[in-house]
């Protein structure tokens, strides 16, 4: 969580990406909470998208778009 701002800034400003996305395990509620808190949008649940040792697992998909990042920075900087 500590470097999220720098990573988002690098991707959306320096690399001029339009969209950054992150996935997390649906059982990891702490990760979901952090991603929501930093302004990422929950897009949904991807069913059985990753195969691990004990079988197929779902993932939660979060994203931030370029215009959302700009709006977030305007709100923060005032």
Description of the structure:
The protein contains 3 helices and 3 strands, in the order αβαββα. The chain has helices at 4-14, 29-37, 66-77, and strands spanning 19-24, 41-52, 55-65. Strands 1-3-2 form a 3-stranded antiparallel sheet. A hairpin with a 2-residue loop joins strand 2 (41-52) and strand 3 (55-65). It is elongated and about 45 Å long.
Question: What would you say about this model in short?
Answer:
By secondary structure, the chain is an alpha+beta fold. Helix content is 41%, strand content 37%.
Key structural traits:
3 strands, single chain
Topology:
Elements: H1 4-14, E1 19-24, H2 29-37, E2 41-52, E3 55-65, H3 66-77
Antiparallel strand pairs: 1-3, 2-3
Number of helices: 3
What structural class results from the helix and strand content? alpha+beta
Main beta-sheet strand count, sense and barrel state: 3 strands, antiparallel
Mean pLDDT: 91
* Beta-strand content: 35-45%
Low-pLDDT regions: none
| C-alpha-based Rg, rounded | 14 Å
The run of helices and strands is HEHEEH
Ends apart, CA distance between termini: 23 Å
How many strand elements? Answer: 3
Please state the overall shape, judged from the principal axes of the Cα atoms: elongated
Residue share in helices?
40-55%
Read across the widest sheet, the strand sequence of neighbours is 1-3-2
């Amino acid at each position: 969580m500590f470097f999220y701002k720098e990573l988002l800034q690098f991707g959306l400003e320096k690399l001029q990406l339009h969209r950054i996305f992150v996935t997390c395990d649906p059982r990891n509620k702490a990760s979901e909470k952090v991603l929501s808190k930093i302004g990422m949008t929950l897009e949904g649940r991807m069913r059985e998208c990753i195969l691990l040792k004990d079988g197929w697992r779902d993932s939660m998909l979060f994203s931030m778009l370029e215009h959302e990042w700009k709006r977030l920075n305007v709100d923060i900087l005032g």
